[in-house]
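Hi Y.,

Following your request, here is the sequence exactly as I used it, all 505 residues.
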Amino acid sequence: MKLTIDNINSSILINLQKIQHIFSNSDSLVIRKFTGEQGTIHACIIYLDVLIDEKSLNQHIIRKINEDMRHMSKLTCESILETIYSLGTIHVITDIEHIVSLITDAGFVVLIEDHTEAYGMLLPGYETRPIEEPKIEINVRGPRESFTEDLHKNLSMVYRKLKTPDLKSKLYVLGQKSNTKVMILYLENLVDLDILTALQHKLESIQLDFLIANTQIEELIQGSTFSPFPQLVTTERPDRVATALSRGKIGIITDGTPIVLLTPSTFFEMLHPSEDLYERFYFANFLRIIRLISLFLSLFGPSLYIALTTFHLEMIPTPLMMTFISSKAGIPFPTFVEALLMETSFELLREASLRLPRAVGQSVSIVGALIIGEAAVQSGIVSRPMVIVVAMTGIASFAIPSFSTAIALRMLRFPVMLFTAYCGVFGLSLSLFILILHLCSLQSFGVPFLAVTNDGSSLRSNVMKYVLLPVRYRSNRKGENKMAGASHNKEGLLLEDVEQNYEKD
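Below is the corresponding structure, written out as tokens. Let me know if you'd prefer a different format.
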């Protein structure tokens, strides 16, 4: 039902008729009327009992108003407002549309006879999930808290990390019918104002009836809609959001979603979990190298095996080549079909393990992979090296920190295998060229997607910033703690100073 902006009438009965018509056939709407001796309605309270804290409302508001009615011939606006003030901030409302909005947002509204203004307050009483340990971004040494579906809880966790007045937040209400609250967070002295303005324009231009999850926002504000790669970093950890904000990024928190979007984002940030900040820089850099190797194996592992064993046997050392040839004896399918069968089976097992209960799913995925792999080898459908290659590819995909990026790599693995099956190493090279060309064409609010940072640094600076330095050098990086409007020349000089100090030590 589309609401028209009707001003509040001085008659309570007329206002109640409009509100009851809007909430018709809703058993959750409660109207508490306060009548005088002659049956005239002096005031009323309207709310939805499934959203509001009725216990607090009865104890602090309704009981006090009933007591006032025993001592007064007629309720006054001053006495009602004095009672409501004991619970918090009062919203003054002048039209029916805002009354409906406040009621559906877990609030109550007080209408008073002969008044063209209503008074309301938020008083949520529904249950919310407590703060728990992260389920996806698990680490060893970091904090043990993650976001929930409650917007105010999520905001409080970020504000506890960044105790500074420079932390700003702006509220948007998106969805014409869902009225979902969306909050953007940024540090005023670090954020790029052009990026902030562009993001605000995109959020204001969103036209949706229902906004249920922030994936809808992600799709509407990202640069390329049809790219398989995610162009915004997603996280469930408040510490990662605080770190990103301190680097000039913007956080987008959606009410009802435990995942926060970070923008602008780059491809390499998808490979850097928050755990890197809690480990010694030697181990953190070692893990970053491992993830780059896992990225290559996850995407090109089966394709490289297909190219070498089908088109370029001369590139394989002779003992290893003889092993591959002997294992292929008696296999009725070409190498590409082998890889396709095993990869499809692996993806089916992975999807089945996600849909089953957690206690059963992990066992099914492990046992199923072992049984199917062994049975396929024993029956002569696939070769043993192919099983090893597919298993290594699956393990490598699990090492990618970003779940959305890992899905994109798993999906692209199949067309790369097809190119390689027809053209060998040339097809593999062509696939790599197309992939890099596509990644170079992507931008996140003007920031190149393949940049290491979003401060416009040179290639040499970007390579250095991919390496995690010790903390005393890390904190001095201009690219890690950029002031809005700072010149790139100063950034380059500062980075050179850091590198010289690091070489001296």
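The radius of gyration is 30 Å.

Thanks again,
Q.
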